[in-house]
Amino acid sequence: MNRIAALRNDAAVLRQMLRGMPKSSSHAENLQNFYGAQAQDYDRFRERLLRGREELIRRLVAKLPPQARVVELGGGTGRNLDFFGERLADLASFDLVDLCPALLDRASERMAHYPQVRVVEADATTYRPAAPVDCVYFSYSLTMIPDWHAALANALAMLKPGGLLGVVDFYTSARRPAPGLVRHNAFTRNFWPRWFAHDGVRLDPAHLAALRERLPRHELAEHRAAVPYLPLIRVPYYVFVGRRPDTA
Q1: How many other CB atoms are there within 10 angstroms of residue 209's CB atom?
Q2: Under DSSP, is residue 98 helix (H, G, I), strand (E, B) or coil?
Q3: pTM above 0.70, yes or no
Q4: Average pLDDT, whole number, for the chain?
Protein backbone atom coordinates (compact mmCIF):
# COMPACT_ATOMS: atom_id res chain seq x y z
CA MET A 1 0.00 0.00 0.00
CA ASN A 2 1.47 3.39 -1.01
CA ARG A 3 1.67 6.32 1.38
CA ILE A 4 -1.28 8.21 -0.10
CA ALA A 5 -3.54 5.15 0.14
CA ALA A 6 -2.35 4.50 3.70
CA LEU A 7 -3.14 8.08 4.73
CA ARG A 8 -6.55 7.84 3.08
CA ASN A 9 -7.33 4.65 5.01
CA ASP A 10 -6.08 6.21 8.24
CA ALA A 11 -8.37 9.16 7.62
CA ALA A 12 -11.37 6.84 7.23
CA VAL A 13 -10.59 5.13 10.55
CA LEU A 14 -9.99 8.44 12.31
CA ARG A 15 -13.29 9.84 11.05
CA GLN A 16 -15.11 6.89 12.57
CA MET A 17 -13.20 7.27 15.83
CA LEU A 18 -14.03 10.99 15.95
CA ARG A 19 -17.72 10.15 15.53
CA GLY A 20 -17.34 7.90 18.55
CA MET A 21 -19.04 4.74 19.70
CA PRO A 22 -22.82 4.80 19.11
CA LYS A 23 -24.81 4.72 22.33
CA SER A 24 -28.37 4.24 21.12
CA SER A 25 -28.51 0.45 20.69
CA SER A 26 -27.39 -2.72 22.43
CA HIS A 27 -23.68 -3.19 23.07
CA ALA A 28 -23.48 -5.72 20.21
CA GLU A 29 -25.20 -3.32 17.78
CA ASN A 30 -22.99 -0.44 18.88
CA LEU A 31 -19.87 -2.51 18.18
CA GLN A 32 -21.11 -3.51 14.74
CA ASN A 33 -22.04 0.07 13.84
CA PHE A 34 -18.70 1.39 15.08
CA TYR A 35 -16.35 -1.26 13.63
CA GLY A 36 -18.28 -2.29 10.53
CA ALA A 37 -17.08 0.68 8.49
CA GLN A 38 -13.45 0.28 9.55
CA ALA A 39 -13.09 -3.53 9.65
CA GLN A 40 -10.96 -3.69 6.50
CA ASP A 41 -8.42 -1.23 7.92
CA TYR A 42 -8.79 -2.24 11.56
CA ASP A 43 -5.56 -4.23 11.91
CA ARG A 44 -3.27 -1.92 9.97
CA PHE A 45 -4.22 1.16 11.96
CA ARG A 46 -4.27 -0.52 15.36
CA GLU A 47 -0.92 -2.20 14.75
CA ARG A 48 0.54 1.17 15.74
CA LEU A 49 -1.85 1.71 18.63
CA LEU A 50 -2.29 -1.59 20.48
CA ARG A 51 1.17 -2.29 21.85
CA GLY A 52 2.15 -5.19 24.11
CA ARG A 53 0.09 -7.89 22.40
CA GLU A 54 3.11 -9.81 21.20
CA GLU A 55 4.65 -9.57 24.67
CA LEU A 56 1.47 -10.98 26.22
CA ILE A 57 1.29 -13.93 23.82
CA ARG A 58 4.98 -14.65 24.27
CA ARG A 59 4.55 -14.80 28.04
CA LEU A 60 1.52 -17.06 27.74
CA VAL A 61 3.07 -19.41 25.17
CA ALA A 62 6.10 -19.92 27.41
CA LYS A 63 3.82 -21.27 30.16
CA LEU A 64 1.26 -23.28 28.15
CA PRO A 65 1.26 -27.09 28.36
CA PRO A 66 1.31 -29.18 25.16
CA GLN A 67 -2.04 -29.43 23.37
CA ALA A 68 -3.40 -26.51 25.36
CA ARG A 69 -6.95 -25.23 25.11
CA VAL A 70 -7.16 -21.45 24.80
CA VAL A 71 -9.96 -18.85 24.71
CA GLU A 72 -9.61 -15.22 23.63
CA LEU A 73 -12.45 -13.00 24.83
CA GLY A 74 -12.97 -10.01 22.56
CA GLY A 75 -10.76 -11.52 19.85
CA GLY A 76 -11.89 -9.23 17.02
CA THR A 77 -10.20 -9.97 13.71
CA GLY A 78 -7.97 -12.75 15.06
CA ARG A 79 -4.77 -10.74 14.57
CA ASN A 80 -3.41 -11.92 17.90
CA LEU A 81 -3.29 -15.54 16.72
CA ASP A 82 -0.45 -14.56 14.38
CA PHE A 83 1.70 -13.94 17.45
CA PHE A 84 1.45 -17.63 18.40
CA GLY A 85 3.61 -18.54 15.40
CA GLU A 86 4.32 -22.26 15.07
CA ARG A 87 2.78 -22.90 18.49
CA LEU A 88 -0.70 -22.25 17.07
CA ALA A 89 -0.66 -25.59 15.26
CA ASP A 90 0.12 -27.33 18.58
CA LEU A 91 -3.01 -26.04 20.33
CA ALA A 92 -5.78 -28.57 20.89
CA SER A 93 -8.40 -25.84 20.54
CA PHE A 94 -8.71 -22.09 20.31
CA ASP A 95 -12.05 -20.29 20.76
CA LEU A 96 -12.04 -16.73 19.45
CA VAL A 97 -15.04 -14.98 20.97
CA ASP A 98 -16.43 -11.59 19.98
CA LEU A 99 -19.76 -9.78 19.60
CA CYS A 100 -18.98 -7.92 16.37
CA PRO A 101 -19.82 -9.80 13.13
CA ALA A 102 -17.78 -7.42 10.96
CA LEU A 103 -14.59 -8.23 12.87
CA LEU A 104 -15.41 -11.92 13.15
CA ASP A 105 -15.73 -12.14 9.37
CA ARG A 106 -12.10 -11.03 9.15
CA ALA A 107 -11.13 -13.61 11.78
CA SER A 108 -12.86 -16.40 9.86
CA GLU A 109 -10.92 -15.48 6.71
CA ARG A 110 -7.62 -15.37 8.57
CA MET A 111 -8.10 -18.67 10.40
CA ALA A 112 -9.71 -20.70 7.60
CA HIS A 113 -6.75 -23.12 7.46
CA TYR A 114 -6.67 -23.84 11.20
CA PRO A 115 -9.38 -26.41 12.06
CA GLN A 116 -8.70 -26.15 15.79
CA VAL A 117 -9.73 -22.47 15.77
CA ARG A 118 -13.43 -21.74 16.34
CA VAL A 119 -14.74 -18.24 15.65
CA VAL A 120 -17.69 -17.65 17.99
CA GLU A 121 -20.13 -14.75 18.05
CA ALA A 122 -20.95 -14.52 21.74
CA ASP A 123 -20.84 -12.32 24.84
CA ALA A 124 -17.65 -12.47 26.92
CA THR A 125 -19.71 -12.28 30.11
CA THR A 126 -21.65 -15.48 29.40
CA TYR A 127 -19.80 -17.62 26.86
CA ARG A 128 -18.46 -20.93 28.18
CA PRO A 129 -16.45 -23.55 26.27
CA ALA A 130 -17.49 -27.20 26.46
CA ALA A 131 -14.75 -28.00 29.00
CA PRO A 132 -12.35 -26.05 31.24
CA VAL A 133 -9.40 -24.51 29.40
CA ASP A 134 -5.73 -23.89 30.08
CA CYS A 135 -5.67 -20.21 29.18
CA VAL A 136 -8.02 -17.26 28.73
CA TYR A 137 -6.90 -13.82 27.69
CA PHE A 138 -8.20 -10.33 26.92
CA SER A 139 -6.29 -8.16 24.45
CA TYR A 140 -7.53 -4.57 24.60
CA SER A 141 -11.03 -5.87 25.21
CA LEU A 142 -11.55 -5.74 28.99
CA THR A 143 -11.84 -1.94 28.81
CA MET A 144 -14.54 -2.30 26.12
CA ILE A 145 -16.83 -4.64 28.06
CA PRO A 146 -19.43 -2.66 30.06
CA ASP A 147 -19.84 -5.38 32.70
CA TRP A 148 -16.15 -6.14 33.03
CA HIS A 149 -16.65 -7.66 36.49
CA ALA A 150 -18.84 -10.36 34.91
CA ALA A 151 -16.38 -10.89 32.06
CA LEU A 152 -13.49 -11.37 34.49
CA ALA A 153 -15.51 -13.73 36.69
CA ASN A 154 -16.54 -15.71 33.61
CA ALA A 155 -12.95 -15.97 32.41
CA LEU A 156 -11.78 -17.31 35.76
CA ALA A 157 -14.69 -19.76 35.91
CA MET A 158 -13.77 -21.37 32.58
CA LEU A 159 -10.13 -21.87 33.58
CA LYS A 160 -8.74 -25.11 34.91
CA PRO A 161 -7.18 -24.84 38.39
CA GLY A 162 -3.71 -23.41 37.79
CA GLY A 163 -4.77 -22.08 34.38
CA LEU A 164 -3.47 -18.82 32.93
CA LEU A 165 -5.31 -15.53 32.64
CA GLY A 166 -3.68 -12.85 30.48
CA VAL A 167 -4.60 -9.21 29.92
CA VAL A 168 -3.02 -6.42 27.90
CA ASP A 169 -4.86 -3.10 27.92
CA PHE A 170 -4.75 0.64 28.35
CA TYR A 171 -5.06 1.94 31.91
CA THR A 172 -4.34 4.75 34.28
CA SER A 173 -3.11 4.28 37.81
CA ALA A 174 -5.03 4.98 40.96
CA ARG A 175 -4.25 8.31 42.59
CA ARG A 176 -2.35 6.35 45.23
CA PRO A 177 -1.41 3.00 43.65
CA ALA A 178 -0.22 -0.01 45.61
CA PRO A 179 3.45 -0.01 46.59
CA GLY A 180 5.71 -0.93 43.69
CA LEU A 181 3.26 0.14 40.98
CA VAL A 182 3.60 3.13 38.67
CA ARG A 183 1.86 6.35 39.73
CA HIS A 184 0.60 8.48 36.85
CA ASN A 185 0.33 12.25 37.10
CA ALA A 186 -2.98 14.11 37.18
CA PHE A 187 -2.90 14.91 33.45
CA THR A 188 -2.54 11.23 32.53
CA ARG A 189 -5.21 10.11 35.00
CA ASN A 190 -7.72 12.61 33.60
CA PHE A 191 -6.87 12.97 29.90
CA TRP A 192 -6.76 9.35 28.72
CA PRO A 193 -10.03 8.14 30.29
CA ARG A 194 -11.85 11.09 28.67
CA TRP A 195 -10.08 10.55 25.33
CA PHE A 196 -10.90 6.86 25.07
CA ALA A 197 -14.42 7.06 26.52
CA HIS A 198 -15.58 8.72 23.28
CA ASP A 199 -14.93 5.41 21.50
CA GLY A 200 -16.42 3.17 24.17
CA VAL A 201 -13.13 2.35 25.90
CA ARG A 202 -13.39 2.64 29.68
CA LEU A 203 -10.08 3.09 31.48
CA ASP A 204 -10.45 2.25 35.17
CA PRO A 205 -7.76 1.64 37.82
CA ALA A 206 -10.11 -0.97 39.30
CA HIS A 207 -9.33 -3.38 36.43
CA LEU A 208 -5.72 -3.89 37.44
CA ALA A 209 -6.57 -3.86 41.14
CA ALA A 210 -9.13 -6.64 40.61
CA LEU A 211 -6.72 -8.73 38.58
CA ARG A 212 -4.01 -8.49 41.22
CA GLU A 213 -6.45 -9.32 44.00
CA ARG A 214 -8.05 -12.29 42.24
CA LEU A 215 -4.73 -13.72 41.00
CA PRO A 216 -2.00 -13.13 43.58
CA ARG A 217 0.41 -15.31 41.55
CA HIS A 218 1.09 -13.03 38.61
CA GLU A 219 3.56 -11.15 36.46
CA LEU A 220 2.92 -7.48 35.66
CA ALA A 221 4.70 -5.07 33.33
CA GLU A 222 3.68 -1.41 33.06
CA HIS A 223 4.60 0.54 29.91
CA ARG A 224 3.81 3.58 27.80
CA ALA A 225 3.39 3.74 24.02
CA ALA A 226 3.11 6.33 21.28
CA VAL A 227 -0.31 7.03 19.78
CA PRO A 228 -0.75 7.62 16.02
CA TYR A 229 -1.02 11.35 15.22
CA LEU A 230 -0.44 12.36 18.85
CA PRO A 231 3.37 12.62 18.87
CA LEU A 232 3.87 14.54 22.10
CA ILE A 233 2.13 12.24 24.59
CA ARG A 234 2.24 8.53 25.35
CA VAL A 235 -0.54 6.29 26.63
CA PRO A 236 0.00 3.85 29.53
CA TYR A 237 -0.71 0.15 29.08
CA TYR A 238 0.01 -2.98 31.09
CA VAL A 239 0.71 -6.66 30.44
CA PHE A 240 -0.63 -9.03 33.10
CA VAL A 241 -0.29 -12.82 33.33
CA GLY A 242 -1.69 -14.61 36.38
CA ARG A 243 -2.50 -18.14 37.45
CA ARG A 244 -5.83 -19.21 38.85
CA PRO A 245 -5.39 -20.72 42.30
CA ASP A 246 -5.13 -24.53 42.25
CA THR A 247 -8.34 -24.75 44.27
CA ALA A 248 -11.54 -22.90 43.43
Answers
A1: 15
A2: strand
A3: yes
A4: 86
Distance CA 73, CA 138 (A): 5
Question: Each residue of 143-189: pLDDT tens digit?
Answer: 999 999 999 999 999 999 999 999 999 999 999 999 999 999 999 99
Domain ranges of the chain: 3-243
DSSP assignments along 125-181, one per residue? TT---SS-EEEEEEES-GGG-TTHHHHHHHHHHTEEEEEEEEEEEE----SSPPTTS
Q: Decide yes or no: CATH 3.40.50.150 for domain 3-243.
A: yes
In degrees, to the nearest 5, what angle opens at C-alpha 102 toward C-alphas 96 and 104?
A: 15
CA distance 132 to 158: 5
- The closest of 54, 56, 49, 47 to 220, measured between CA atoms, is 56
What would the pLDDT profile of 192-244 be if each residue is shown by its tens digit? 999 988 778 999 999 999 999 999 999 999 999 988 777 788 999 999 999 99
Specify the amino acid at residue 177. P
Measured in degrees and rounded to the nearest 5, phi and psi for residue 232 equal -95, -10
Helix H or strand E encompassing 25: none
Distance of CA 194 to the CA centre of its chain: 19
Residue 7 in this model has a pLDDT that exceeds 50: no
> String of b and e for 111-137 (b: at least 16 CB within 10 Å)?
beeeebbebeeebbbebebeeebbbbb
DSSP state at residue 57: H
Q: Which helix (H) or strand (E) holds 37?
A: none
Q: Indicate the SS3 state at residue 204.
A: coil
Are β-strands 218-227 and 69-73 bridged in parallel, bridged antiparallel, or unpaired?
Answer: unpaired
